[in-house]
């Protein structure tokens, strides 16, 4: 009986020990599992928050080994994606900085997200102020209005406007950019068209001036011809007088048309045909064509160029330059005046100068004489048959020849026009 009782007690104690042991083992295992789960959860939170903790290292026998490997793989993938995104973002930002158009991106809270250097240049102030409300930075009413309309209507806006601070004309596009169902961006794109508008104005002015200049001789020719047809031709003296006027006006009309055509030829045919030229013989041949005009005004022409002066130049274009300058040297010279033509080859260039003893040009007008249709003295220019285009033609031809032109003049003393060209020239300069 005693042995039986001891046996029961031993079995009971053994059972209690085993139960306690199993409980302890399960408790330790649970705590280990909880520790590993907490570690896995912490790792996932770090990945979500774009942190870079080290990889989880578990034994292959661990029940969470495969899960840890998957989380490590996700972290590596996210790191690669982030690097690619940062690289692409830097590329986009760098590209945007090199764009010649102004770009500004606004978030849906109307705050500046990014802006490039061209936008700052156009606006006349630093615009890359991330997080600032655009209304505090954009100080041009027309642009602010376009941006506001885009925010209100979610529709793109387009208009030509003028930037107050820089006096720039821009073609403004404000674009609505939906990102998803709940978020959007607004992008302002400014194209600088100031130069284009200037060219348009010049074209309009040129057409207006040409129309006016053509109208003057045409009106004179029409008027005097009509008077002759109405009976004035029966009077010999009147007929001869009127026909001389018609002839002079027709010459002015011809000269004007030739100057206009010269400008057109310069613009349409910039190619050069370079050849070696004896400058002395070239000027002598040109002076022969002006012999009647030189004799009529009793002007003495002095050629101061060496017989062996050889240059490389486009002969046709140089001829336009020299013809215009000699013609002006005769036309605006005093009766009985003098004309000097000089040329010299230097180390890297050569020059040709034409000096006269004419009326001279005031200092404040010397820069403007190369403008199209500009005349120093309208009455004197018309009397001498000037079109106001001659020197602008000369300037364009000199520019086509990679040269420059300068003038030195004194009222009542005379003027000196000097053109300078490089020694080495190519047929098709870039």
TrEMBL record:
<dbReference type="GO" id="GO:0004721">
    <property type="term" value="F:phosphoprotein phosphatase activity"/>
</dbReference>
<dbReference type="Pfam" id="PF02518">
    <property type="entry name" value="HATPase_c"/>
</dbReference>
<keyword id="KW-0067">ATP-binding</keyword>
<dbReference type="InterPro" id="IPR005467">
    <property type="entry name" value="His_kinase_dom"/>
</dbReference>
<protein>
    <recommendedName>
        <fullName>histidine kinase</fullName>
        <ecNumber>2.7.13.3</ecNumber>
    </recommendedName>
</protein>
<keyword id="KW-0547">Nucleotide-binding</keyword>
<feature type="domain" description="Histidine kinase">
    <location>
        <begin position="209"/>
        <end position="425"/>
    </location>
</feature>
<dbReference type="Pfam" id="PF00512">
    <property type="entry name" value="HisKA"/>
</dbReference>
<keyword id="KW-0808">Transferase</keyword>
<keyword id="KW-0418">Kinase</keyword>
<dbReference type="InterPro" id="IPR003594">
    <property type="entry name" value="HATPase_dom"/>
</dbReference>
<keyword id="KW-1003">Cell membrane</keyword>
<dbReference type="InterPro" id="IPR004358">
    <property type="entry name" value="Sig_transdc_His_kin-like_C"/>
</dbReference>
<dbReference type="InterPro" id="IPR050351">
    <property type="entry name" value="BphY/WalK/GraS-like"/>
</dbReference>
<dbReference type="GO" id="GO:0005524">
    <property type="term" value="F:ATP binding"/>
</dbReference>
<dbReference type="InterPro" id="IPR036890">
    <property type="entry name" value="HATPase_C_sf"/>
</dbReference>
<dbReference type="GO" id="GO:0000155">
    <property type="term" value="F:phosphorelay sensor kinase activity"/>
</dbReference>
<dbReference type="InterPro" id="IPR003661">
    <property type="entry name" value="HisK_dim/P_dom"/>
</dbReference>
<keyword id="KW-0597">Phosphoprotein</keyword>
<dbReference type="InterPro" id="IPR035965">
    <property type="entry name" value="PAS-like_dom_sf"/>
</dbReference>
<keyword id="KW-0902">Two-component regulatory system</keyword>
<dbReference type="InterPro" id="IPR036097">
    <property type="entry name" value="HisK_dim/P_sf"/>
</dbReference>
<dbReference type="GO" id="GO:0005886">
    <property type="term" value="C:plasma membrane"/>
</dbReference>
<dbReference type="GO" id="GO:0016036">
    <property type="term" value="P:cellular response to phosphate starvation"/>
</dbReference>
<keyword id="KW-0472">Membrane</keyword>
């Amino acid at each position: 009986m005693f042995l039986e009782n001891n046996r029961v007690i031993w079995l009971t104690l053994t059972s209690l020990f085993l139960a306690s042991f199993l409980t302890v083992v399960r408790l330790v295992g649970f705590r280990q599992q909880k520790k590993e789960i907490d570690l896995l959860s912490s790792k996932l939170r770090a990945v979500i928050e774009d942190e870079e903790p080290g990889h989880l290292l578990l034994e292959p026998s661990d029940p969470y080994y495969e899960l840890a490997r998957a989380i490590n793989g996700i972290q590596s993938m996210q790191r690669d994606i982030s690097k690619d995104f940062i690289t692409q973002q830097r590329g986009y930002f760098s590209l945007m900085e090199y764009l010649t158009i102004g770009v500004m991106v606004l978030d849906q809270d109307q705050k500046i997200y990014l802006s490039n250097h061209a936008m700052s240049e156009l606006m006349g102030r630093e615009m890359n102020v991330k997080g600032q409300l655009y209304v505090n930075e954009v100080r041009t009413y027309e642009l602010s209005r376009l941006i506001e309309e885009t925010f209100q209507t979610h529709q793109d806006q387009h208009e030509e406007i003028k930037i107050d601070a820089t006096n720039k004309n821009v073609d403004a596009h404000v674009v609505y950019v939906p990102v998803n169902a709940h978020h959007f961006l607004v992008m302002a794109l400014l194209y600088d068209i100031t130069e284009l508008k200037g060219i348009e104005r010049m074209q309009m002015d040129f057409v207006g001036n040409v129309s006016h200049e053509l109208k003057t001789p045409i009106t004179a020719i029409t008027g005097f011809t009509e008077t002759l047809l109405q009976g004035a031709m029966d009077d010999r003296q009147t007929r001869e007088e009127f026909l001389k006027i018609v002839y002079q006006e027709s010459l002015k009309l011809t000269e004007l048309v030739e100057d206009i055509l010269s400008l057109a030829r310069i613009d349409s045919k910039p190619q050069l045909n370079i050849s070696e030229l004896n400058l002395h013989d070239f000027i002598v041949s040109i002076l022969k064509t002006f012999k009647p005009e030189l004799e009529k005004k009793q002007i003495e022409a002095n050629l101061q160029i060496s017989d062996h002066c050889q240059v490389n130049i486009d002969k046709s274009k140089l001829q336009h330059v020299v013809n215009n300058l000699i013609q002006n040297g005769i036309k605006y010279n005093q009766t009985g005046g003098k004309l000097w033509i000089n040329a010299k080859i230097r180390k890297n260039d050569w020059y040709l100068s034409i000096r006269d003893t004419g009326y001279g040009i005031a200092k404040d007008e010397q820069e403007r004489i190369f403008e199209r249709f500009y005349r120093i003295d309208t009455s004197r220019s018309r009397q001498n048959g000037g079109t106001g285009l001659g020197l602008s033609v000369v300037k364009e031809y000199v520019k086509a020849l990679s040269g420059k032109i300068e003038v030195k003049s004194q009222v009542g003393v005379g003027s000196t026009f000097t053109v300078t060209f490089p020694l080495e020239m190519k047929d098709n300069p870039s």
